[in-house]
Structures are given as structure tokens and as C-alpha cells.
Amino acid sequence: MPAHNPASELAAFVDSHFGHRGLVPEAVIAESWYRSVTQHRLDPSVHPTDNMLSAAEIRQLQAQHQAYLTLASQGVSGLARRVADAGFAVLLSDAAGVTLDARLPADAGHFTGSGLVVGARWDESIAGTNGIGTALASQQALTIHRQEHFLASNARLSCSVSPIFDSHNHLLGCLNATCLYNDGPKQAQHLTLQLVTLYARLIENAHFRQRYRDCLTLAVKPCDGDADLAAEQLLALDEGGRIVGANRAAFNSNPHALLGLRIEQVLSADIDQLLALTQGGARGTQLYDACQVTGLEVGLRVPRAYRPCASTAPAASANAHPTLDQLAGGDPQLQHAVTRLRKVLDKDIALLLSGETGTGKEAFARALHQASARSARPFVALNCAAIPEALIESELFGYRPGSFTGADRKGMKGKLEQANGGTLFLDEIGDMPADLQTRLLRVLAERELVALGAATPVRLDIQVISATHQDLTARIATHQFREDLYYRLCGMRITLPALRERSDRAHVIEGLLARLAPGLHLSASAHAALLAYSWPGNIRQLLNALRQGAALAEGGCIELADLPAELQLGQVEPSRTICATPQLGQQVEEAEADHLLTLLRRTQWNMSAAAQAAGISRSTLYRKIRRHGIVQPNRQGH
Ligand SMILES: Nc1ncnc2c1ncn2[C@@H]1O[C@H](COP(=O)(O)OP(=O)(O)OP(=O)(O)O)[C@@H](O)[C@H]1O
């Protein structure tokens, strides 16, 4: 078994495994084998020992996924009834590859002996190439037949698996049908895979209907007689006709940024036209407009208990994390950056995001994670400026039980370990203390972590995304930041433009307002003030201004007077004006320190609450606290 091997040696290893059996692996399977060797460092002949959860962990996980389990249960039973006679077990997993439900056929003993039980971990990092783990990693339906399994101990299984997605296109888990000792060719599993995929779609559609039972929903399918009934698209709309949820078929036909689009951007009819075509949408009925809208059969469902989605869905979508396309908006510089980022996603390249506070660095990191093959794995953020220096080490690297006096009895997993398999976002990386820079560099280079007090290292497979508002090259020049760590973190660097530099400011303002408060609009003077302001706090500040405007607005329109005072004062850029006169600058500094101190006292030194009250991020608050030399009373002298 090759370890640390060059690509050609690895390819030869995989080829020889399949070649001996006269097989040619599909690309998705070969890639999974490469991952099993290079990322997960597994050995085909070694069966994992940590592949089962304890009974208590299983109970906890099932309770956590209660809604999903209940919803999927009928689909799992239906599939099991259809395939049990043919000797198949049916399993349902969560998005991390742990089986939550298992329906076994008559000779159950063989199946349980093969790990086909509730609480088994089929994640690729544990079991290598296998049906559930590889369907989750590749986000596609597939069959892993016998010797295609990475671990020799799984080579008796033939598994046909489909991922299951929620109405925001995020993975919920997998549906799997497995048979044992099937000597037939893989092609014989084709119909099984089709059946599993069909049931996965049924579960997704049930999830969609349940979630949007009180909302306007649209069912769309071509009028064409050859159209596939199982490919019916389902869309949930808010009151203004904006898409707030969809099923897999809809995401497949509109892969980019479906959520948040207006229905007229997808169909050639807006919400009013649809309601008119379906005679106003009588309550509790499902009305069809056959073939009048772009050759599509469109059914609008107006539930009996209809309450406009505006009361729930927009709030949810306003809080939902923006996608990469939504973040790029209409700005050519950002769109170009997103195109480049998509190309390097999943290529094991560390990314460094720079930009002023509030430009969306963390939002970008989250969107990159969501767009990557790691989206079902954890996204873990560590703000290096927001925690005291002394705590960064244990936060990042963790510790084992009893490793130092005062340590938590149970030990603590550090952020690096928590992020294993997923993405670690290191915010304000420029503030990382020097000695920890050295330790981080070693961990990233060796891809192994030894937690404080631990005897053995943990293998790490993480995508690292860092962010900074500082000029790291200047910090390198003054020896405050390690140059070698910089190059390790900066496989590719993207600079996010300040809001005042963005050419699509009007688009950003409208987009945010539509998400925050659908139906509200801006008066001409409010719109002009928002466009002309210099936004030192960037999108975060704009969001706060729009929130205030929406809260104060009357009659559906945000007036200039509803916006924060600085916007009404004219279009000055506060920081530049202040710096022009040192004395005034000094006064403003003092006023800011007083203001922050008041907020900190009022919130009893709760940093998140104080930052929110000040309309700045926690890291900016920490920076300001340090700059003004503010010290919490009971921390004095430490
Ligand atoms: N293009 C965008 N569209 C919608 N919301 C956005 C966009 N960019 C940022 N946001 C939102 O603005 C807020 C600030 O963004 P974020 O925290 O990512 O900024 P940041 O650059 O990481 O800030 P800081 O450097 O202060 O930590 C968040 O609520 C984020 O969801």
C-alpha cells in the first residue's frame, strides 16, 4: 500500500487493484480511491475499529434528527418493502454518513455482521470508498459494487445509494439499498439504483411539502408527453414572488442561485400573472394553468391556512448565508474573483481573503465551503482577534483530559480537529501570536495534529480559508508575521472590494432590502443617500442601516429620516473628515472610547452584545478596545 506516494505510483496502485479483476473504475470511484489513500491514509487490508457509535451517541443523534427520520420513514419502508424479497437491506444515513435507520431482510444476521446496522459510520474518512461515504463526498447517486469498495472487508457488499437534499440544496443524508455476495455484474444493480434514486426524490419532495405547507408553492413540469413525472420541479414563493425553497429537480434545472430569484426570472410570468392565470388562487385548492406559461404546466398551490410567507420565509432567507453568486452580485471584479475561486475549489489550495471590515470575508468563506465537496462536513471559524492570546492555543489545538491544571476534565477538541474533513476559517489571521504561528505552520505542513497531553497524532484533512484586514506583507517586513506561514495560507489571495468601490452598489442595496424586508421600498432621497454614502463599515453597516430604516418605515416606504443620522448629515466620509483636524480627531477618539465603555458596561462586558449594539463585528470591537486601552475592571492586573 503506497503512502506519501507520487501521483503515478498511486495511479498504478489503483489500476493494479482494478486491473487484476478486469475492471476499469469509473472516474468518481477512482477519485474516491485516491482520496482514501492520500487524504484519509487508509489501508485496504485494515478494518477500522472506530466505525460504530455507542448506544448513547446513537440515541442522541436520532433525537437530533427526529424530524428527518420521521419524514423519511415512509420512504425507507416503501423501498424496503419493494426490495426485501430480493435480499436487500435499506439504510438511511445522515449527512455525516452515520446510519440512522436500517431495515433488514429475513436473514438479518449476515447484514448486521457486515456493519449494516444503525450507528455505523460510513464516512469515507473511516470506511474509504463505499456507497454512502462516496455518494456524500461526490454528491451523486452511484453503485459501489463489491471490489470497488476500498476496504477488503467490505468487498462482499453491493450498495446503490442516492444522496438526499433539503429545500435549500443542502445534504440531509443518503438512502441506500445493499445486497450481499452478489456475484452478478454491476450492471445488474442498475434498476436498484434507479429505484433508490426515485425514493430519495420522494423523500425530498415530502420534506419540501412539509416545510412549505403554509406557503405558496408552484409545481412545474413540461407539457411534453415525454416529460418525466419524477422530474417535477417544486418551488416555494414568498408573497412578493421570490423563491425561498425548491426541490432537487428545480435545483438541477437552475443550478445557480435559484434561491432569492424572482419567479419571473425563472418562468416568464410574475406572481400576479400566475395568480391571475390560476383565477386568483382559491384557498385550499391546487389550480393548474395547462401549458400557457412557456409550454409548462404550472400548478399554484394556495394552502387553506395560507399566511403570507413574508412573516416567516423572508426572515429565514435574510438570515440564510448568501451563496457565492449572491455575494458576487453584479460587480465585475467580484464576479471574476468568484469564477477563479470556483476553479480552485476542492483542489487543496489554501485561500486568503483580504478586505476592509464588513466586506463579507466570513460570508465568502462560508459560501466557498457550501459550494465545495466538503459542504456536508463542518465549517469551523476561529477569530484570532476575538479571543485572548492565552486561549488561542487550546481553542485551536485542543487538549486531552487532565493535560494541565484547570483543564476541563473531559478534555476539549480544538478547532483544527473539529474542522477535520471540512473547512477551517481563520479570521483576523494577522493577529495570531508569533509562537502559535510556528505551531500552526507545522500542523499545516505535516497535516497531523498532536493535541496538548495527547500521545498519538490525529490526521488532518482540512480546507483552510484565512482572512485579514491587515497588510500581511507589511507585518512580514516587521517580523510580526511568519513569511513561510503566509505562503502556506495564501495558495490564492482574493481581495474583496470596499462597498464604496463596488460598481453594483444599487444592486446590493436592492438585494439586501428585498431579503430583509420584502415589499418595502426606498424613497428617492433615501436611495440617493444610501448610494452616495462612503460606508466605512461596508455591507455590515449597510445591513444595519436598512434594518433601522425597515423598522422605522411607515406606509411601505423607507424615507431619508428613517435612516441612521450619519446618512442624513450629507455624504461625508467620517474617517477622512475626522483625520483632517487632529484636535477634532482626538475628541472623536475619546467620544468613541466613552461610547464603547458605556455599551460594554450596559451589556455586562458581553462582547457579542456590545458589538451588535455598536453595529460593528466582534473583532473590530476587540481591536478598538485594544486601541483605546479599555480594560474590563475584574481583568485589571492580569
Ligand atoms: N454580498 C453580500 N450580500 C449579502 N450579505 C452580505 C454580503 N456580504 C456580506 N454580507 C453580510 O454582511 C455581514 C458582514 O459580513 P462578514 O462578517 O462576512 O464581513 P467580514 O469582512 O468578515 O467582517 P470583519 O472583517 O469585520 O470580520 C454579514 O452579516 C454577512 O452575511
Automatic annotation (TrEMBL):
UniProt protein name: Sigma-54-dependent Fis family transcriptional regulator
**Source taxon at top rank:** Bacteria
Q: Which residues cross the membrane?
A: none
Where is the Sigma-54 factor interaction domain positioned along the sequence? 327-551
- Organism of derivation: Pseudomonas parafulva
Give the UniProt keywords, A-Z.
ATP-binding, DNA-binding, Nucleotide-binding, Transcription, Transcription regulation
